[in-house]
């Protein structure tokens, strides 16, 4: 639903990818297991901040509650015309 401020998405979009690792089947054979659980990375696409966010404008503190839960931040820059 449209809102009167930029980046009005409240909840982040979440993507989970499994990290490919050729060593896992070899290790599974060594320890004699049939269950292989690869490492996974979760990406959270969080809306950007707007001017005045520190005063509660836009997503304000809601943004901070999402960003507080992550272990690393990746800044994607749009670099095309």
What does this structure look like?
With 81 residues, this protein is α+β, with helices and mostly antiparallel strands. The protein has helices at 23-30, 61-67, and strands at residues 13-18, 40-45. It has one domain (1-81).
Short description:
GO terms for molecular function: ATP hydrolysis activity; GTP binding. With about 80 residues, the protein is an alpha+beta fold. It is about 20% helix and about 15% strand.
Strand and helix map with partners:
Blueprint: E1 13-18, H1 23-30, E2 40-45, H2 61-67
Organism: Candidatus Roizmanbacteria bacterium GW2011_GWC2_35_12
Keywords: Magnesium, Nucleotide-binding
GO molecular function, one term: ATP hydrolysis activity
What is the structural class? alpha+beta
Overall tally of structural domains: 1
Portion of residues in beta strands equals 5-15%
Order of helices and strands: EHEH
Oligomer: single chain
Q: Provide the helix percentage.
A: 10-25%
Rg calc: 19 Å
Strand order of the largest sheet: 1-2
Largest sheet: 2 strands, antiparallel
Shape: elongated
InterPro entries: Beta-grasp_dom_sf, G_OBG, GTP-bd, P-loop_NTPase
Domain OBG-type G: 1-81
GO molecular function: ATP hydrolysis activity; GTP binding
Keywords: Magnesium, Nucleotide-binding
